[in-house]
Amino acid sequence: MKRRRGRTCGHIWQSVFLVAGMIVVVCVLLVQMCSGLLLRARMNALSVDVFADEDFREMNISPQNFQKLVARSEETSISVGALMASVMVDRQYQLLHTVSVLDDSAEMARRYEEKKRLNEEALMQLTEAYAAVWEDLKYFPVPQSSVTPNALVYYENSWMSERSYGGERGHEGTDLMASINQRDLYPVISMTDGVVEKVGWLEQGGYRIGVRSPHGGYFYYAHLSSYAKQWKEGDPVKAGELLGMMGDTGYSKIVGTVGNFDVHLHLGIYIKTPQTEELSVNPYYILQSLENSKLTYAF
């Protein structure tokens, strides 16, 4: 009787383990199925106007994660813009915190190829948008001084803060404020290679210059006090080249008006999308990623 009872208990436990194993397998399959359906839904959603999504326009990418994307791009031979698009779809356009997949080149490449199979056209459009903003970056737009240590700039995330000149509107850029409120002191350089697309006076922007980078981003530098030379539309520009001097021009229809605000550089970044010729994105995290890429000038 004891042996028979022992055998019965053994069979029961075997059955329990078998059922538990089957449950685990089913759960894993369900998770994989749900993940696949979720990914498919996200990729289908890219066909809608994702560029109008505020989360996309925020460009929420930390400097550390940007550097990891650059490193993974070199290891996989997949462009920074492509890897960025793939990861941002997974993370719902938020990449400010630690993400383990950014340390795994093979997994990043696998996920990118999976998304490419699901909706290549939409993924390519998103890739081009990120590339226009991030892939041509070389330098922070205001050099550091070798002569005046306290000639610093400071900025905050003022994206879409209220502005009232010319009517109520959101602030589509980042203001780099001068610690020394003196026009014609701080040099302003090009963050990228490119071509001058616009130059001259604007009512809001004062003396401004706009540079179109090789991947299609439009980098807008406003409120300059003077230009480095007589720029013309179509002139080539090298990353790090002097564009002009920081000032306080603008907020007036009268050309040359100064003094309506403190000396600063307004930086705007714009991209072209299938829906619009000019979509602004938040420069704040881009600037943070260039904090260690400052040239030194004697001023």
Structure explained in plain terms:
By secondary structure, this protein is α+β, with helices and mostly antiparallel strands. The chain is 37% helix and 22% strand. It contains 6 helices and 16 strands. Strands 4, 7, 8, 9, 10, 11, 12, 13, 14 and 15 form a 10-stranded antiparallel beta sheet that branches. The chain is elongated and about 95 Å long.
Structure described in brief:
The protein has 299 residues and is an alpha+beta fold. It is 37% helix and 22% strand. Helix 1 (2-45) packs parallel to helix 5 (105-134), helix 3 (63-76) packs across helix 5 (105-134) and helix 4 (80-90) crosses helix 5.
Helix content percent band: 25-40%
CATH class placement of the largest domain: Mainly Beta
Query: C-alpha Rg, in Å?
Result: 26 Å
Count of DSSP H/I helices: 6
The outline comes out as elongated
Query: Structural class given helices, strands, pairing?
Result: alpha+beta
Beta-strand percentage range: 15-25%
Gross CATH architecture of the largest domain: Distorted Sandwich
**Strand and helix order:** HHEHHEHEEEEEEEEEEEEEHE
Can you count the beta strands? Answer: 16
The CATH homologous superfamily of the largest domain is termed Glucose Permease (Domain IIA)
Mean pLDDT: 90
Major sheet details: 10 strands, antiparallel
